[in-house]
Structure formats: C-alpha cells, structure tokens
Write the structure tokens for this entry.
Amino acid sequence: MTDESLLYLRRQDVQALGITTKDIIDTIESLLRQVAEGRAWNTPKAQILPGGAKLHMSTLATASEPSLMAVKSLGMNPDNPQSGLETIGALITVFDAESGLPLGIMDGDWITGVRTAGLSATAAYHLGRKDSETLAFIGCGLQARCHLEAFSQIFPLKRIRALGRGAVNRDRLLDMARDMGLEADASGDAAAALSGADLVVSSVPHTTLKESFLDADLLSPGSFVAMTDLTRPWHAESIARLDRVFIDNRDQESFMADPMVSPDLISGDLTDLATGDKPGRINDRERTVFAFRGLA
C-alpha cells in the first residue's frame, strides 16, 4: 500500500452515493445477523471524558461480508459553536479485514448522523405502526433532522411537532419538514408534543439537561419512541409502565456502569429483532421503546 492508494472520501462524496434508509436498514440487519452467527464482531464503545463536557470516543467493528474492518474516532465539545465550529467531528478509517491494511478514510460526521438514525429506523420498522402519520421531536438538532429524513422514507408521515430550546435548530427542522410537504408546528410543551404522536424521537443533549422532564405516561396507545439520549430526559418510573423496551445491544449495556433502563425492563435488543428471535410490534395499542447508546 502507498499513500497514493489510500482513498479519502469527503462528506459530499459519501452523500453523493444516494444511500437510502432502506439500504441502511438492510445493511444493519445483515450485519446484526452476522454477529449472531459469529461472522461479524464489534466491541463496546471506548470513551474518555477529559473534563468539562468534552467527550472522546472510538468504536471498532469487523465483518466477513464485506471483509472490512472499520474504526470510528469521534470528538465532541458543546462549546465549539461559540467559536464557529461543529459540535462533533468524526473520521472513519476502513481496513481490509484479511490483510489488515488500511484502504481509506471517510468523513464521519454525516455517517454518524444517518447511521444513528438508521438504528432508530431499524427498530421503528419492527416496533412502529405501519400507518404512523405524526412524528414528534423532543430536541431539534442534527439527530432530529437525520431522523426526519430516515422516518419519512419508511412511514406515511403527514405532520411533525417540534419541541426544542434553540429557536434556530427548531425552525430549521420545521422548514425542512415543510419543504418535504409535511405539516410542521412548534409545540409549547412536552404534553402538546407527545399527545397523539405515533412516533417520537428524543435527542436532548446531555449538556443542556439538568434533570428528567419527560413523562412516558403522556405517550398515546400504539406509539413508538426512539430515545437517542440514553433515556436521560425521561422519568424512569414512567418508562417502567410502557409495554416493551428494546435496546441496541445487551452485551454492550452489561459493561456500562450507568444503565439506560433497569435490566428487568428489557424485552430484547436490535439483534433479537433482526434475527426474529423476538417479535416486533404485537398489536396496535402497545407502546414500544428503543433506547440506545449506538453500535460499532
């Protein structure tokens, strides 16, 4: 290998591939089945908290098909926007799994957003109602926009509601929805956002969260919630009253000192849904949850 043969893909290069939500779901499910069969492997996230609200994190995964190894490195500093910088920066290095030699480097910012939304979409595909029309967002940043794009491709959405602290991000999300031909309204409080919503995505940054403020009892029968924020904004006792709770990976969660939910509430993980070991939505009235940290 020479420096000239090492491929570098910028964000616009990756976006130009035209990857759809269905492509992402199919790939995630294929890899999860390979993990269950012992043909793909991933490790729990490694992270360093160097002080303040900064986060340094890495993930590692390898598979037989495709025969690749990938390492993602990510840094986060919520103070960056004050200096005109993005909050998160990520790079993904891809290796040939057989030789162990590097093949290329990809910008990881866009991939991080759509892959996280892809995990939610995979869970929602199994646990959400197929006729879901109303999508509510608690938190209106990058993850909200990525989830709107992903969910709009697998559900017959007609409207969104948005609740967020930052007017700029909220209005950007509302404008995005309107450009997609959807009704879009800002909600004054959590009750207004959650009431009657078929789908809910919460992505509240931990840096702005002082205490839990969301009551899962407000969720309507038949709703599905993707909690991308480790369930922290939600009152724990109210989550316990929901019908079924799925997480991304039980093995990874077992290593964590601060569980997202009580282990006895967990109905299964994403691999269980992908392999069919656990059923998806059972009826049109159950309230289902997908809580996750993210997978390599």
